[in-house]
Structures are given as C-alpha cells and as structure tokens.
Amino acid sequence: MADDIGLDERLAGLAAEGRRSAVPLAAETIRARGDRRRRRRRAAQASGGVLLAAAVIAGGLTLFGRGEEKAPTAAKPSASAPLFVPPTPGPGEEYAAELGYVYGAKAVDGDRVRVTVKQLEEKNGTAVPTGVVHQLTLDSFTAVEVETLTGGRPGDARIGDVVDLLKGGPEWVFALDYDAEGRVRSLREVYWLTVK
Amino acid sequence: MDEQAFDAFYAGSVGRLIGQLYAMIGDRAEAQDVVQEAFVRAWERRGQLDKDGAPEAWVRTVAYRLAVSRWRRVRTSLSFAKRQGPPPNVPPPADHHVLLVEALKQIPAAQRRVIVLHHLCDLEVKQVAEETGSPVGTVKAQLSRGRAALAKILADTELDPRTGGRVSEVERG
After folding, report:
1. Could you tell me which residue ranges the RNA polymerase sigma-70 region domain spans (chain B) (predicted)?
2. Contacts of B153 (CB under 8 A, 6+ apart)
3. Is domain B1-90 in CATH 1.10.10, yes or no?
4. Is B114 on the interface with A (CB under 8 A)?
5. Using CA atoms, how far apart are residues A33 and A28, in angstroms rounded to an integer?
6. At what angle do helices B28-44 and B55-74 cross, to 10 degrees?
7. pLDDT in tens, B55-85
C-alpha cells in the first residue's frame, strides 16, 4: 500500500521542505534557555522543600498541641471501590493518561458534564478493567478526539457536544489526559483497542 | 554530554527533526518551535539523556508530546506563532505538499505518528512500538489503517499515481 502511493518518497519530500524552511536558533541560545529552566526548577524544588519543612513543623506542632486527644479512626478502604488517584505526568511530560470506558454522561449546571469512568489497563493490545470506577465533572468545552463515536470520520468535538452519544452504558473507550493539577484537559477515543 | 557534544548533536539533528515533526503535525513554524523547546529540555536534563543512549528519539518524543499538548491548549484559538505569520523569506509550501499535509491531517494523530516514524524515520515496527509506548500489534494496525486511509484520501488527486501526477522529489529527511 505504501508503494502504491509512494509514501516514503512523498514524506521525504515533505520533511525536506520543512527542513529547508527552518531557521533554528543557535545552539548557545538553546543551552542558555535550558540552563535557565534548570535554575528555575532547582529554585522551585528548593522553595518546595522549605514549604514542606514548614508544613512538617506546623503539623508536628499541631499534633503536639493535641496532647492526649484520641486520634480519629482511619476510614477502612472498600475493596469493591478502590480509591481513584489521578495519574501524574512524568518528567518532561505535560499530561498523564488514564484509559477507560467513558459513559453515563449527563449535562449539569448548564456548562458542565458529569461522566463515569470505568478504568482499563492495556495488556498486550487488550484492555482489561482494573476495578476502579469513578466520576468526573468536566467543563463542557473539554476537547474530545472522536472517530467511531461520530460515525467513523476523525474529528474534534467538545464533551458537551457528545453527551447524548455517551449517556448510555460502557461502550466507548477513551484515553483521558490529566495535567499536573489532576484536571482532565482532553479525551481521545481509543477505538482500536479490544476490551476483554 | 558536554557543551561540545550537545552542540554537535544539535547541529546534526535539528533540521532532520524539524522535518520529521513537520510531517507529523503539518505546521512548519510549530514543528520548529516544539523541536527547539525539546532541545532546551534535552540540555536541561542532559544527565538523563546520556543514560537513555538514544538522544534523538528522546528529543523527537518530547517534541511530539509538546506539539500534542499545544494542540489541546490552543485548539480553539490561534497560536502565537500563527498570529505572527510565517518567517520572512520562506517560500510557501509546494502545492503537492499542502495536499499531503491536508491528507495527513485527516487521519488520526496516532496513525500519522507511526506512519512518519516507520516511513520517514525508517524505524522498524518494534522500534516504533518502543518509541510510542504501544504494543507491536497496535502499531501494525495503525500503520495498516493509516496507509489505507491515506490511499483513499489521495485517490484521484495529483498525488494519485494512477493520474500520472507522481512527484519526483526525493530528499531523505
């Protein structure tokens, strides 16, 4: 198929044009920006450490001040509803993804959409449920990449536009992109995955 | 990686990576932006880069992630780069490249990425799977679907070999 449309050749031509039109910055400038980022990161880590130390001291003082007061009993985690923790982006990444069925969509408060997520885990090209089910309330403008959900043509939508299509039971699998603050910034339909 | 080694790495690969990212995301200014930003992060984390042993793949992956992040952030508004317009003295893209970019944009981003990695970057399917973090079977399916979709989209255009419009520009990226 690739030979039929000369894909290698055409992509090479396209890339060559991109390369020719590029006017990249000097390496020194790139290094200088990298050094600035590094300094900022270290400064942030250092100030975070100070805050953490302050929090630990404050916490210690609070505990000390409680004297003989009885500590509250910790809530027992439920085995049937494991606690959901939003994934955290790794170093150098802006988003972390969660895979899952997205269903039970319902518009709330006019500009938000509540959905249920049945979390999945990919193993050798097949997705299996992890047992985690949780709810999310999203801004109705949250971006959604769709394909089979909207009839087979790839496109971009907003979650508010596809509420009716997602209001039923678990059928459509998405990757949900969480930012560093644990907010969902976009959903991408993962239509090629087989779910066990 | 010391300054000299980094500068040599940058000089030797920045153009090639911009070309590859252009094919993946279809925007020349954006491709240059994200590749440069990825190199900034590469220098910032050069210790990790040395350990990985595949710095070009690292930069390409970070650049792609940056591009995807930006799409999501600015999807409904014009990016700064676009507001600025193209840099001066850069000729507009050739018609057949505009056609190819438009065709690539019509297939899902994941398919576009594996097609570029396999057909432009010359990576084996297994290497594509490693770089994208996907199973080999998924990559094969994405390649197959992406190629079929592209062939369909390009049918009866000047890029369809059956119409005799084959372009003979060959320059390896």
Report:
1. 15-74
2. B103, B106, B107
3. no
4. no
5. 9
6. 120
7. 999 999 989 988 887 665 544 333 333 433 4
Residue B82 to residue B65: CA distance in whole angstroms: 19
Q: Which residues pair with A177 in a beta bridge?
A: A97, A186
Average pLDDT of span A102-127 = 89
Is the ipTM higher than 0.95? The answer is no
Range of the domain at A139: 96-195
| Closest to A188 in 3D by CA, of A148, A161, A137 | A148
Task: Give the number of domains in chain A.
Answer: 2
Task: Provide, rounded to the nearest whole percent, the portion of chain B with pLDDT above 70.
Answer: 76
pLDDT at A56: 45
Q: Looking at the structure, do residues A113 and A39 belong to the same domain, yes or no? A: no
Q: What is the pTM of this model?
A: 0.55
Query: Nearest residue of B to residue A190 by CA position?
Result: B110
In angstroms, the CA B121 to CA B131 distance is 12
pLDDT-derived band of residue A95, with 50, 70 and 90 as boundaries? confident
What's the 3-state SS for B71-83? HHHHCCCCCHHHH
Amino acid occupying residue B61: T
Averaged pLDDT of chain B: 80
pLDDT tens, A7-63? 888 889 889 988 888 888 899 888 888 887 777 666 555 554 444 444 444 444 333
Q: Is A84 within the bounds of a domain?
A: no
- What span, in angstroms and rounded, lies between the C-alpha atoms of A144 and A163? 11
Distance CA(A131)–CA(A81), nearest Å, equals: 7
Q: Enumerate residues 14 to 73 of chain B having a beta carbon within 8 A of any beta carbon in chain A.
A: 14-16, 18-23, 28, 31-32, 35-36, 39-46, 48, 62, 65-66, 68-69, 72-73
CATH topology for B91-173?
Arc Repressor Mutant, subunit A (1.10.10)
H or E stretch covering A119: strand A112-123
- A4 → closest Cβ in B90, B116, B161: B161
Put simply, the chain B residues between 136 and 165 with a CB less than 8 A from any chain A CB are: 137-138, 141-142, 144-145, 147-148, 150-151, 154, 159-161
Interval B15-34 mean pLDDT: 91
